[in-house]
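[stage:ingest] chain + small molecule ((R)-mevalonate)
[stage:ingest] validated
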Amino acid sequence: MTLIVRALVPTKVTLLGEHTVVYGEPAIVIALDKRLIIEMRRRNDNVITIRSSGLTIPNIEYILTPDSYPQVRVDSAIVSRFFSYIIQALSIVEEELSVRRKGVDILVESSLPPGVGLGTSAAISVGTIAAYSFLQGHVLEPREIARLGHRVELSVQGAASPMDTSATTFGGMLYIEPSRDIVEKLPITDIHIVVGYVPKKFTTAELVRQVRNLRNRYGELINPIIKVAGSIVKNARKALEKRSLEKLGELMNIFHGILEALGVVETEVARIVHVLRLAGALGAKMSGAGGGGAFVALARSKKDAETLRNVIKSLGASVVDAGIANEGLRIEQVGI
Ligand code: MEV
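[stage:predict] done
[stage:export] tokens:
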């Protein structure tokens, strides 16, 4: 029988702290029970194949000419980036564990599109690290998987915080503060969040670079803004712990203003966020790297959350039908 390993990895939504977390400030992130699956099947040679199902692939072209084999052209930065995370994760496992390449057929299944700010690249990195190291005979601790997943994101994106790889490895709601090496699980599961997305126009790496350029040009203005962002997140943590939802919502709105100042909020998301507030959200903001992509709203009740989901659909955006994933990454061995 062939050895088959499956890593089931949650995706995530950033409640507060995107971008400023890259400069060491705190963030609050929630793992979502919309799991991405990385399945690896051992081969008898040292060939690696990668297949995906469920991921939307934009700009795919199939060329059929009478005198050659059919060719498929994929003209998309998002798709090549998606493969880069897997390839980089395989090399990092081989380097860290000092092991040789083993042939595997890799299948990636996701019902969320890549690159909209919901942690699919972190989930791919973490899942590949966990499944491939398992196939190599090593069962890594979650802390080690998160650390290596972060290394993957750093090498593919150039800059990345440990936020997304921590959320997708550990699950739950996390308070993270990279400058003090803090990753804490917050024991909160009873808030009503609503998540949606529109297509994203830029990659995370481009948006992180854009903020860095702004900071380089206006350091004396942007550095204090980044510090204020950190204070907003610390206040939000206190509000969450006291279940002061009105306050948490207000802090989300203020944080959205910070992201506007950093230049990463795209028009369509800005409009949706404002409509959600008018429709009764306690707070609403863009989420993730921006440039389109994801947004998150806080609802007062389950019923209000349903109303907000309907508003999102009526605006032509997609709703992520998921709750908090209390359990993080899970590994299953299917064959032997
Ligand atoms: C991307 O999901 C969040 C950013 O803060 C980048 C990062 O933390 O690595 C924009």
